[in-house]
Amino acid sequence: MVYSGKLTLSSYGGRVTYHEITQQVRDMVGKSSIKDGICVVASPHTTCSIIFEEFSYDQNFYGYEYLQVDLNNLLEKFIPRCTTEGQYFHPGPKHIQVGLEDFKGKISPEAYTMLNTDAHLKSTLLGTSETFIIENGELQLGLVGYIYFIDWDQIRPRDRTCHIKIIGE
Fold first, then answer.
1. Partners of residue 17 on adjacent β-strands
2. Entry pTM
3. CA-to-CA separations, 135 to 5, 37, 115, 127, 156, in angstroms, rounded
4. How would you class 122 by CB atoms within 10 Å of its CB: exposed for 0-12, middle for 13-18, buried for 19 or more?
5. What is the pLDDT of residues 49-97, one digit of tens each?
6. Topology annotation, domain 2-168
7. 137: Cβ–Cβ under 8 A, 6 or more apart, which residues?
8. Terminus-to-terminus CA distance in the chain, angstroms?
9. Least packed by Cβ within 10 Å: which of 29, 41, 94, 124?
10. Strand partners, 4
11. How far is 25 from 164, CA to CA, in rounded Å?
12. pLDDT band (50, 70, 90) for residue 103
């Protein structure tokens, strides 16, 4: 059997957005009626990641869990936020041209929205999907494991899609 689901998640803009989606994924596993199999949680966006991490009960004033603060700080040291053209090779002039002309109205409304190279690199490093085992109808996440959808792109607020595919019997 195969079960497919989607979540629509809103990003803040102006800062990295984390969504803790563990319960939504568990609910979909329950709806699927699959007892043994796998559950793939994936982002179709090249600037988003799916991670599996411990829930950190402490939060800062922005609502980031402390592990998220640590991850943001670590990645910012290696991959600083893209704030101006030429900071990274990407986006180059051809990429901007394609974005503005060929994808007009579909992806990037203005050239500055393509200044998200840092988000692409962070997504590449952390990955865009996670796969989980289902046994006896339950996600095998251990005692402290949680699933997070992260939008690294800080350019603007927007809705993002998270795909859940459950395969098994």
1. 151
2. 0.94
3. 19, 7, 43, 24, 39
4. buried
5. 999 999 999 999 999 999 999 999 999 999 999 999 899 999 999 988 8
6. Jelly Rolls (2.60.120)
7. 29, 30, 33, 34, 35
8. 6
9. 94
10. 165
11. 7
12. confident
- Residue 153: count other Cβ atoms within 10 Å of its Cβ: 25
Contact 144, 27 (CB under 8 A): no
**Strand 37-42 vs strand 129-135: parallel, antiparallel, or unpaired?**
antiparallel
Cα separation, 103 vs 101, in Å, equals 6
Contact 56, 68 (CB under 8 A): yes
Q: Where are the beta strands (DSSP E) in the chain?
A: 2-11, 17-20, 37-42, 48-54, 129-135, 138-139, 145-151, 158-168
Domain ranges within the chain, ordered by starting residue = 2-168
User: How far apart, in Å, are the Cα atoms of 130 and each of 87, 101, 103, 121, 164?
Assistant: 31, 34, 29, 18, 10
Instruction: Indicate the SS3 state at residue 111.
Output: helix
Give the other-Cβ count within 10 Å of 137's Cβ: 14
The answer to whether 117 and 87 are in contact (CB under 8 A) is yes
